[in-house]
Protein backbone atom coordinates (compact mmCIF):
# COMPACT_ATOMS: atom_id res chain seq x y z
CA UNK A 1 0.00 0.00 0.00
CA UNK A 2 2.77 2.55 0.83
CA UNK A 3 4.36 1.59 -2.54
CA UNK A 4 1.13 2.43 -4.30
CA UNK A 5 0.92 5.75 -2.46
CA UNK A 6 4.50 6.64 -3.44
CA UNK A 7 3.79 5.68 -7.05
CA UNK A 8 0.72 7.91 -7.04
CA UNK A 9 2.58 10.78 -5.38
CA UNK A 10 5.42 10.69 -7.93
CA UNK A 11 3.64 9.38 -11.00
CA UNK A 12 0.61 11.65 -10.70
CA UNK A 13 2.48 14.95 -11.00
CA UNK A 14 4.78 13.44 -13.65
CA UNK A 15 1.83 12.35 -15.77
CA UNK A 16 0.23 15.79 -15.31
CA UNK A 17 3.43 17.55 -16.44
CA UNK A 18 3.78 15.20 -19.44
CA UNK A 19 0.14 15.69 -20.39
CA UNK A 20 0.44 19.44 -19.99
CA UNK A 21 3.53 19.52 -22.18
CA UNK A 22 1.85 17.42 -24.87
CA UNK A 23 -1.21 19.69 -24.78
CA UNK A 24 0.97 22.80 -24.96
CA UNK A 25 2.92 21.39 -27.87
CA UNK A 26 -0.22 20.63 -29.86
CA UNK A 27 -2.28 23.72 -28.98
CA UNK A 28 0.23 26.44 -28.10
CA UNK A 29 3.39 25.54 -30.01
CA UNK A 30 4.91 29.01 -29.46
CA UNK A 31 4.55 28.72 -25.67
CA UNK A 32 5.87 25.13 -25.78
CA UNK A 33 8.87 26.31 -27.75
CA UNK A 34 9.70 29.08 -25.27
CA UNK A 35 9.30 26.88 -22.21
CA UNK A 36 10.53 23.46 -23.35
CA UNK A 37 11.78 23.38 -26.93
CA UNK A 38 14.23 26.26 -26.74
CA UNK A 39 16.19 25.08 -23.66
CA UNK A 40 16.31 21.50 -24.99
CA UNK A 41 17.48 22.46 -28.47
CA UNK A 42 20.02 24.94 -27.11
CA UNK A 43 21.48 22.26 -24.88
CA UNK A 44 21.61 19.83 -27.80
CA UNK A 45 23.24 22.38 -30.05
CA UNK A 46 25.88 23.39 -27.51
CA UNK A 47 26.61 19.81 -26.49
CA UNK A 48 26.88 18.33 -29.94
CA UNK A 49 28.01 21.20 -32.17
CA UNK A 50 31.46 19.88 -33.10
CA UNK A 51 30.42 16.25 -33.53
CA UNK A 52 27.33 17.18 -35.61
CA UNK A 53 29.39 19.45 -37.87
CA UNK A 54 31.90 16.66 -38.23
CA UNK A 55 29.20 14.13 -39.11
CA UNK A 56 27.80 16.54 -41.70
CA UNK A 57 31.21 16.97 -43.31
CA UNK A 58 31.37 20.63 -42.36
CA UNK A 59 34.68 20.50 -40.54
CA UNK A 60 38.09 21.20 -42.04
CA UNK A 61 41.59 20.07 -41.10
CA UNK A 62 43.13 22.42 -38.50
CA UNK A 63 45.84 24.83 -39.55
CA UNK A 64 49.41 23.74 -38.91
CA UNK A 65 49.79 26.41 -36.22
CA UNK A 66 46.68 25.24 -34.44
CA UNK A 67 47.76 21.61 -34.64
CA UNK A 68 51.14 22.50 -33.15
CA UNK A 69 49.52 24.54 -30.38
CA UNK A 70 47.13 21.72 -29.47
CA UNK A 71 49.94 19.18 -29.42
CA UNK A 72 52.13 21.46 -27.31
CA UNK A 73 49.52 22.35 -24.70
CA UNK A 74 47.41 19.20 -24.42
CA UNK A 75 47.75 15.52 -25.05
CA UNK A 76 44.48 15.39 -26.99
CA UNK A 77 44.44 14.23 -30.59
CA UNK A 78 44.17 17.11 -33.06
CA UNK A 79 40.55 17.28 -34.19
CA UNK A 80 39.02 18.74 -37.33
CA UNK A 81 37.68 22.29 -36.88
CA UNK A 82 33.98 23.21 -37.36
CA UNK A 83 32.91 26.66 -38.66
CA UNK A 84 33.32 29.29 -35.90
CA UNK A 85 30.00 29.82 -34.16
CA UNK A 86 28.48 33.11 -33.03
CA UNK A 87 26.18 33.49 -30.03
CA UNK A 88 22.79 31.80 -30.05
CA UNK A 89 19.97 34.32 -30.42
CA UNK A 90 16.65 32.91 -29.24
CA UNK A 91 13.46 34.13 -30.93
CA UNK A 92 9.79 33.45 -30.22
CA UNK A 93 9.70 30.87 -33.04
CA UNK A 94 13.19 29.43 -33.01
CA UNK A 95 16.73 30.68 -32.80
CA UNK A 96 19.41 32.21 -34.96
CA UNK A 97 23.08 31.57 -35.04
CA UNK A 98 25.85 32.88 -37.28
CA UNK A 99 28.66 30.72 -38.61
CA UNK A 100 31.93 31.89 -40.11
CA UNK A 101 32.71 29.50 -42.94
CA UNK A 102 36.09 27.81 -42.93
CA UNK A 103 38.33 28.42 -45.96
CA UNK A 104 37.16 26.32 -48.88
CA UNK A 105 33.53 26.12 -47.68
CA UNK A 106 30.56 27.76 -49.33
CA UNK A 107 27.01 28.46 -48.06
CA UNK A 108 25.65 25.67 -50.28
CA UNK A 109 27.66 23.15 -48.22
CA UNK A 110 25.81 24.21 -45.05
CA UNK A 111 22.46 24.42 -46.87
CA UNK A 112 22.94 20.85 -48.13
CA UNK A 113 23.19 19.68 -44.50
CA UNK A 114 20.14 21.64 -43.26
CA UNK A 115 17.97 18.53 -43.02
CA UNK A 116 20.64 16.66 -41.02
CA UNK A 117 21.12 19.62 -38.67
CA UNK A 118 17.39 19.85 -37.99
CA UNK A 119 17.24 16.21 -36.92
CA UNK A 120 20.39 16.50 -34.84
CA UNK A 121 19.10 19.50 -32.89
CA UNK A 122 15.43 18.50 -32.75
CA UNK A 123 13.91 21.50 -34.50
CA UNK A 124 11.20 21.77 -37.15
CA UNK A 125 13.41 23.23 -39.87
CA UNK A 126 16.77 24.86 -40.52
CA UNK A 127 17.24 27.60 -43.12
CA UNK A 128 20.53 29.03 -44.26
CA UNK A 129 21.05 32.56 -45.53
CA UNK A 130 24.17 34.48 -46.47
CA UNK A 131 24.89 37.49 -44.24
CA UNK A 132 28.09 38.57 -46.01
CA UNK A 133 30.87 36.73 -47.80
CA UNK A 134 32.15 34.05 -45.46
CA UNK A 135 29.32 34.38 -42.92
CA UNK A 136 26.02 32.49 -43.00
CA UNK A 137 23.09 32.63 -40.64
CA UNK A 138 21.33 29.47 -39.54
CA UNK A 139 17.69 30.17 -38.80
CA UNK A 140 16.32 27.32 -36.72
CA UNK A 141 12.53 27.17 -36.59
CA UNK A 142 11.17 25.35 -33.55
CA UNK A 143 7.71 24.38 -34.81
CA UNK A 144 5.47 24.53 -37.87
CA UNK A 145 4.75 28.27 -37.94
CA UNK A 146 2.34 27.94 -40.88
CA UNK A 147 -0.16 25.86 -38.88
CA UNK A 148 -1.43 28.84 -36.88
CA UNK A 149 -0.14 31.95 -38.54
CA UNK A 150 0.99 34.82 -36.32
CA UNK A 151 2.79 37.61 -38.09
CA UNK A 152 6.06 38.77 -36.48
CA UNK A 153 5.71 41.96 -34.45
CA UNK A 154 8.48 43.71 -36.31
CA UNK A 155 7.85 43.68 -40.05
CA UNK A 156 9.47 45.75 -42.74
CA UNK A 157 6.27 47.38 -43.99
CA UNK A 158 6.14 50.90 -45.35
CA UNK A 159 4.92 52.87 -48.32
CA UNK A 160 3.78 50.41 -51.02
CA UNK A 161 5.06 47.51 -48.92
CA UNK A 162 2.56 45.16 -47.33
CA UNK A 163 3.58 42.29 -45.01
CA UNK A 164 0.95 39.97 -46.40
CA UNK A 165 1.90 36.50 -45.21
CA UNK A 166 4.31 34.48 -43.12
CA UNK A 167 7.15 32.52 -44.67
CA UNK A 168 7.97 29.04 -43.44
CA UNK A 169 11.18 30.41 -41.91
CA UNK A 170 9.00 32.64 -39.64
CA UNK A 171 9.86 35.91 -41.40
CA UNK A 172 7.26 38.14 -43.03
CA UNK A 173 6.57 37.87 -46.74
CA UNK A 174 6.34 41.45 -47.91
CA UNK A 175 4.58 42.45 -51.11
CA UNK A 176 6.75 45.34 -52.23
CA UNK A 177 5.17 47.08 -55.22
CA UNK A 178 8.23 49.13 -56.06
CA UNK A 179 10.49 46.07 -56.20
CA UNK A 180 7.97 43.79 -57.95
CA UNK A 181 5.40 45.96 -59.71
CA UNK A 182 3.04 43.29 -61.00
CA UNK A 183 2.05 39.94 -59.57
CA UNK A 184 0.06 36.89 -60.53
CA UNK A 185 -1.69 34.83 -57.85
CA UNK A 186 -3.11 31.48 -58.94
CA UNK A 187 -5.02 28.79 -57.09
CA UNK A 188 -7.97 26.39 -57.17
CA UNK A 189 -11.34 27.47 -55.74
CA UNK A 190 -11.22 27.97 -51.96
CA UNK A 191 -7.42 27.96 -51.92
CA UNK A 192 -7.14 31.44 -50.39
CA UNK A 193 -6.55 33.83 -53.30
CA UNK A 194 -9.17 36.34 -52.22
CA UNK A 195 -7.83 36.25 -48.66
CA UNK A 196 -4.46 37.21 -50.08
CA UNK A 197 -6.06 40.14 -51.95
CA UNK A 198 -7.98 41.10 -48.82
CA UNK A 199 -4.72 41.47 -46.88
CA UNK A 200 -3.21 43.59 -49.62
CA UNK A 201 -6.24 45.89 -49.75
CA UNK A 202 -6.33 46.23 -45.96
CA UNK A 203 -2.57 46.91 -45.95
CA UNK A 204 -2.71 49.52 -48.70
CA UNK A 205 -5.93 51.22 -47.53
CA UNK A 206 -4.23 53.45 -44.90
CA UNK A 207 -1.60 54.55 -47.44
CA UNK A 208 -1.82 57.39 -50.00
CA UNK A 209 -2.59 55.02 -52.88
CA UNK A 210 -5.53 54.72 -55.30
CA UNK A 211 -7.12 51.27 -55.22
CA UNK A 212 -8.97 50.09 -58.30
CA UNK A 213 -10.82 46.77 -58.56
CA UNK A 214 -12.02 44.52 -61.36
CA UNK A 215 -14.03 41.71 -59.85
CA UNK A 216 -15.92 39.75 -62.44
CA UNK A 217 -17.69 37.70 -59.76
CA UNK A 218 -20.18 40.59 -59.81
CA UNK A 219 -18.17 42.26 -57.10
CA UNK A 220 -18.73 39.76 -54.29
CA UNK A 221 -15.05 39.74 -53.32
CA UNK A 222 -14.26 43.45 -53.64
CA UNK A 223 -17.62 45.16 -53.05
CA UNK A 224 -17.17 45.20 -49.25
CA UNK A 225 -14.20 47.52 -49.80
CA UNK A 226 -16.06 50.10 -51.93
CA UNK A 227 -15.50 52.86 -49.36
CA UNK A 228 -11.79 52.85 -50.14
CA UNK A 229 -11.93 52.00 -53.87
CA UNK A 230 -11.42 54.72 -56.45
CA UNK A 231 -13.06 52.57 -59.15
CA UNK A 232 -14.73 49.19 -59.34
CA UNK A 233 -15.82 47.12 -62.35
CA UNK A 234 -17.95 44.13 -61.56
CA UNK A 235 -18.37 42.57 -65.02
CA UNK A 236 -16.35 42.36 -68.25
CA UNK A 237 -18.48 45.14 -69.79
CA UNK A 238 -17.52 47.64 -67.07
CA UNK A 239 -13.91 46.40 -67.16
CA UNK A 240 -13.81 47.14 -70.89
CA UNK A 241 -14.73 50.76 -70.11
CA UNK A 242 -12.40 51.10 -67.13
CA UNK A 243 -9.22 49.70 -68.69
CA UNK A 244 -8.87 52.33 -71.49
CA UNK A 245 -9.33 55.04 -68.86
CA UNK A 246 -6.43 53.58 -66.86
CA UNK A 247 -4.31 53.42 -70.03
CA UNK A 248 -5.13 57.10 -70.69
CA UNK A 249 -4.18 57.93 -67.10
CA UNK A 250 -0.87 56.17 -67.67
CA UNK A 251 -0.26 58.12 -70.86
CA UNK A 252 -1.01 61.41 -69.10
CA UNK A 253 1.55 60.51 -66.47
CA UNK A 254 4.14 59.81 -69.16
CA UNK A 255 3.38 63.24 -70.62
CA UNK A 256 3.92 64.77 -67.19
CA UNK A 257 7.30 63.06 -66.83
CA UNK A 258 8.21 64.15 -70.38
CA UNK A 259 7.31 67.78 -69.63
CA UNK A 260 9.52 67.65 -66.61
CA UNK A 261 12.37 66.26 -68.72
CA UNK A 262 11.73 68.98 -71.34
CA UNK A 263 11.97 71.77 -68.77
CA UNK A 264 15.01 70.20 -67.31
CA UNK A 265 17.19 70.24 -70.43
CA UNK A 266 19.65 72.54 -68.68
CA UNK A 267 19.22 71.02 -65.23
CA UNK A 268 21.60 68.43 -63.76
CA UNK A 269 21.23 64.83 -64.92
CA UNK A 270 20.11 63.53 -61.55
CA UNK A 271 17.00 65.71 -61.72
CA UNK A 272 15.90 64.21 -65.05
CA UNK A 273 13.56 61.35 -64.32
CA UNK A 274 12.04 58.49 -66.27
CA UNK A 275 9.39 57.54 -63.73
CA UNK A 276 7.05 59.26 -61.29
CA UNK A 277 9.41 58.67 -58.37
CA UNK A 278 11.86 61.23 -59.70
CA UNK A 279 9.21 63.97 -59.73
CA UNK A 280 9.07 66.47 -56.86
CA UNK A 281 6.63 65.44 -54.10
CA UNK A 282 4.13 68.16 -54.99
CA UNK A 283 3.91 67.05 -58.63
CA UNK A 284 4.07 63.30 -58.16
CA UNK A 285 0.82 61.56 -59.06
CA UNK A 286 -0.58 59.08 -56.60
CA UNK A 287 0.27 55.40 -57.28
CA UNK A 288 -2.60 53.21 -58.50
CA UNK A 289 -2.93 49.51 -57.66
CA UNK A 290 -5.29 47.58 -59.91
CA UNK A 291 -6.71 44.38 -58.40
CA UNK A 292 -8.14 41.87 -60.86
CA UNK A 293 -9.95 38.93 -59.26
CA UNK A 294 -10.72 35.98 -61.58
CA UNK A 295 -8.76 37.30 -64.55
CA UNK A 296 -9.92 34.46 -66.84
CA UNK A 297 -13.39 36.04 -66.93
CA UNK A 298 -11.90 38.89 -68.96
CA UNK A 299 -10.60 36.45 -71.54
CA UNK A 300 -13.66 34.25 -71.98
CA UNK A 301 -16.10 35.13 -74.75
CA UNK A 302 -19.43 33.54 -75.51
CA UNK A 303 -20.16 35.17 -78.86
CA UNK A 304 -18.16 36.38 -81.83
CA UNK A 305 -19.37 39.92 -81.04
CA UNK A 306 -17.59 39.88 -77.66
CA UNK A 307 -14.30 38.87 -79.23
CA UNK A 308 -13.35 42.37 -80.29
CA UNK A 309 -14.03 43.72 -76.80
CA UNK A 310 -11.95 40.93 -75.26
CA UNK A 311 -8.99 41.61 -77.56
CA UNK A 312 -9.11 45.29 -76.68
CA UNK A 313 -9.24 44.56 -72.95
CA UNK A 314 -6.33 42.15 -73.12
CA UNK A 315 -4.28 44.66 -75.11
CA UNK A 316 -4.98 47.33 -72.48
CA UNK A 317 -3.97 44.98 -69.68
CA UNK A 318 -0.75 44.06 -71.48
CA UNK A 319 0.04 47.75 -72.00
CA UNK A 320 -0.58 48.50 -68.34
CA UNK A 321 1.70 45.63 -67.36
CA UNK A 322 4.36 46.68 -69.82
CA UNK A 323 4.42 50.41 -69.16
CA UNK A 324 2.55 50.89 -65.88
CA UNK A 325 5.45 50.72 -63.46
CA UNK A 326 7.07 54.01 -64.43
CA UNK A 327 3.66 55.70 -64.22
CA UNK A 328 3.05 54.24 -60.75
CA UNK A 329 0.37 51.79 -61.91
CA UNK A 330 0.69 48.30 -60.47
CA UNK A 331 -1.23 45.11 -61.25
CA UNK A 332 -2.32 42.43 -58.81
CA UNK A 333 -3.87 39.66 -60.89
CA UNK A 334 -5.68 36.66 -59.43
CA UNK A 335 -7.12 33.62 -61.12
CA UNK A 336 -7.68 29.89 -61.04
CA UNK A 337 -5.74 29.16 -64.23
CA UNK A 338 -3.84 31.42 -66.53
CA UNK A 339 -2.49 29.52 -69.49
CA UNK A 340 -2.25 29.74 -73.27
CA UNK A 341 -5.70 28.12 -73.61
CA UNK A 342 -7.25 31.46 -72.62
CA UNK A 343 -6.26 32.66 -76.05
CA UNK A 344 -4.39 35.48 -77.66
CA UNK A 345 -2.38 37.62 -75.22
CA UNK A 346 -2.64 35.35 -72.16
CA UNK A 347 0.97 34.15 -72.13
CA UNK A 348 2.23 37.60 -73.04
CA UNK A 349 0.40 39.16 -70.11
CA UNK A 350 1.61 36.39 -67.80
CA UNK A 351 5.20 37.01 -68.80
CA UNK A 352 4.85 40.62 -67.63
CA UNK A 353 3.73 39.62 -64.15
CA UNK A 354 7.00 39.23 -62.28
CA UNK A 355 5.76 38.19 -58.83
CA UNK A 356 4.25 34.70 -58.63
CA UNK A 357 2.21 33.17 -55.85
CA UNK A 358 0.62 29.76 -56.33
CA UNK A 359 -1.95 28.48 -53.86
CA UNK A 360 -3.29 24.91 -53.87
CA UNK A 361 -3.97 23.77 -57.43
CA UNK A 362 -5.93 20.90 -58.92
CA UNK A 363 -3.31 19.83 -61.45
CA UNK A 364 0.37 20.20 -62.18
CA UNK A 365 -0.32 22.22 -65.32
CA UNK A 366 -1.85 25.04 -63.25
CA UNK A 367 1.17 25.13 -60.94
CA UNK A 368 3.44 25.24 -63.98
CA UNK A 369 1.52 28.27 -65.25
CA UNK A 370 2.46 30.13 -62.09
CA UNK A 371 5.86 28.74 -61.17
CA UNK A 372 7.15 26.69 -64.10
CA UNK A 373 9.52 29.42 -65.18
CA UNK A 374 10.88 29.89 -61.64
CA UNK A 375 11.88 26.44 -60.37
CA UNK A 376 10.67 22.87 -60.99
CA UNK A 377 10.78 22.07 -57.25
CA UNK A 378 8.44 24.99 -56.63
CA UNK A 379 5.88 23.33 -58.94
CA UNK A 380 6.16 20.11 -56.93
CA UNK A 381 5.76 22.01 -53.66
CA UNK A 382 2.61 23.79 -54.93
CA UNK A 383 1.09 20.46 -56.03
CA UNK A 384 1.71 19.07 -52.52
CA UNK A 385 -0.42 21.72 -50.75
CA UNK A 386 -3.26 20.03 -48.89
CA UNK A 387 -6.85 21.37 -49.00
CA UNK A 388 -7.16 21.69 -45.20
CA UNK A 389 -4.70 24.59 -45.12
CA UNK A 390 -6.32 27.43 -47.08
CA UNK A 391 -4.02 30.38 -47.57
CA UNK A 392 -0.91 28.19 -47.90
CA UNK A 393 0.97 29.02 -51.08
CA UNK A 394 4.32 28.84 -52.80
CA UNK A 395 5.82 32.22 -53.65
CA UNK A 396 8.50 32.79 -56.21
CA UNK A 397 11.39 34.79 -54.84
CA UNK A 398 13.16 37.68 -56.52
CA UNK A 399 16.39 35.80 -55.91
CA UNK A 400 15.13 33.05 -58.20
CA UNK A 401 14.31 30.79 -55.26
CA UNK A 402 10.93 30.05 -53.73
CA UNK A 403 9.36 29.74 -50.33
CA UNK A 404 6.18 28.45 -48.71
CA UNK A 405 3.99 31.19 -47.28
CA UNK A 406 0.60 31.42 -45.55
CA UNK A 407 -1.63 34.40 -44.96
CA UNK A 408 -3.07 34.92 -41.48
CA UNK A 409 -6.85 34.81 -41.23
CA UNK A 410 -8.47 38.21 -41.72
CA UNK A 411 -12.23 38.39 -41.69
CA UNK A 412 -14.07 40.22 -44.44
CA UNK A 413 -15.69 42.39 -41.77
CA UNK A 414 -12.32 43.47 -40.33
CA UNK A 415 -10.89 44.26 -43.77
CA UNK A 416 -14.04 46.21 -44.66
CA UNK A 417 -13.75 48.17 -41.42
CA UNK A 418 -10.18 49.16 -42.30
CA UNK A 419 -11.46 50.38 -45.68
CA UNK A 420 -14.33 52.30 -44.06
CA UNK A 421 -12.06 54.05 -41.59
CA UNK A 422 -9.63 55.05 -44.32
CA UNK A 423 -12.34 56.15 -46.78
CA UNK A 424 -11.16 59.76 -46.45
CA UNK A 425 -7.85 58.73 -48.04
CA UNK A 426 -9.40 58.00 -51.45
CA UNK A 427 -7.25 60.22 -53.68
CA UNK A 428 -8.71 62.81 -55.98
CA UNK A 429 -8.56 61.26 -59.46
CA UNK A 430 -11.20 62.94 -61.65
CA UNK A 431 -10.70 60.48 -64.55
CA UNK A 432 -11.74 57.58 -62.35
CA UNK A 433 -14.69 59.42 -60.77
CA UNK A 434 -17.33 57.88 -63.12
CA UNK A 435 -16.24 54.41 -61.98
CA UNK A 436 -16.28 55.19 -58.25
CA UNK A 437 -18.64 52.67 -56.64
CA UNK A 438 -21.57 54.03 -54.67
CA UNK A 439 -20.66 53.59 -51.02
CA UNK A 440 -23.19 51.59 -49.09
CA UNK A 441 -22.96 51.71 -45.34
CA UNK A 442 -21.12 48.52 -44.49
CA UNK A 443 -22.87 45.98 -42.29
CA UNK A 444 -20.36 44.20 -40.07
CA UNK A 445 -23.14 42.10 -38.59
CA UNK A 446 -24.13 40.84 -42.03
CA UNK A 447 -20.53 40.21 -43.10
CA UNK A 448 -19.92 38.21 -39.96
CA UNK A 449 -22.95 36.11 -40.63
CA UNK A 450 -21.88 35.57 -44.21
CA UNK A 451 -18.36 34.56 -43.22
CA UNK A 452 -17.72 31.14 -44.70
CA UNK A 453 -16.72 28.22 -42.56
CA UNK A 454 -12.93 27.93 -42.48
CA UNK A 455 -10.96 24.75 -42.76
N1 LIG B 1 -4.91 31.99 -44.35
C1 LIG B 1 -6.09 31.50 -44.08
N2 LIG B 1 -6.38 31.01 -42.87
C2 LIG B 1 -7.58 30.49 -42.59
N3 LIG B 1 -8.59 30.40 -43.48
C3 LIG B 1 -8.37 30.89 -44.71
C4 LIG B 1 -7.12 31.44 -45.09
N4 LIG B 1 -7.19 31.84 -46.38
C5 LIG B 1 -8.41 31.53 -46.78
N5 LIG B 1 -9.13 30.95 -45.81
C6 LIG B 1 -10.51 30.48 -45.88
O1 LIG B 1 -10.61 29.64 -47.01
C7 LIG B 1 -11.80 29.89 -47.72
C8 LIG B 1 -11.48 30.24 -49.15
O2 LIG B 1 -10.72 31.41 -49.21
P1 LIG B 1 -10.80 32.40 -50.45
O3 LIG B 1 -12.17 32.90 -50.65
O4 LIG B 1 -9.73 33.40 -50.25
O5 LIG B 1 -10.44 31.40 -51.64
P2 LIG B 1 -10.38 31.68 -53.19
O6 LIG B 1 -9.16 31.00 -53.67
O7 LIG B 1 -10.50 33.14 -53.46
O8 LIG B 1 -11.64 30.92 -53.73
P3 LIG B 1 -12.49 31.22 -55.05
O9 LIG B 1 -11.63 30.82 -56.21
O10 LIG B 1 -13.68 30.35 -54.91
O11 LIG B 1 -12.80 32.68 -55.05
C9 LIG B 1 -12.51 31.00 -46.99
O12 LIG B 1 -13.47 30.41 -46.16
C10 LIG B 1 -11.45 31.65 -46.16
O13 LIG B 1 -11.97 32.18 -44.98
MG1 LIG C 1 -11.79 34.30 -54.64
UniProtKB/TrEMBL annotation:
Residues covered by the FtsK domain: 167-368
Gene3D superfamilies (UniProt xref): P-loop containing nucleotide triphosphate hydrolases (3.40.50.300)
Residues that hold ATP according to the record: 187-194
GO molecular function annotation: ATP binding; DNA binding
Keywords: ATP-binding, Nucleotide-binding
Record-given protein name: Transfer protein TraSA
Pfam family, one: FtsK_SpoIIIE
Nucleotide-binding found in the keyword field: yes
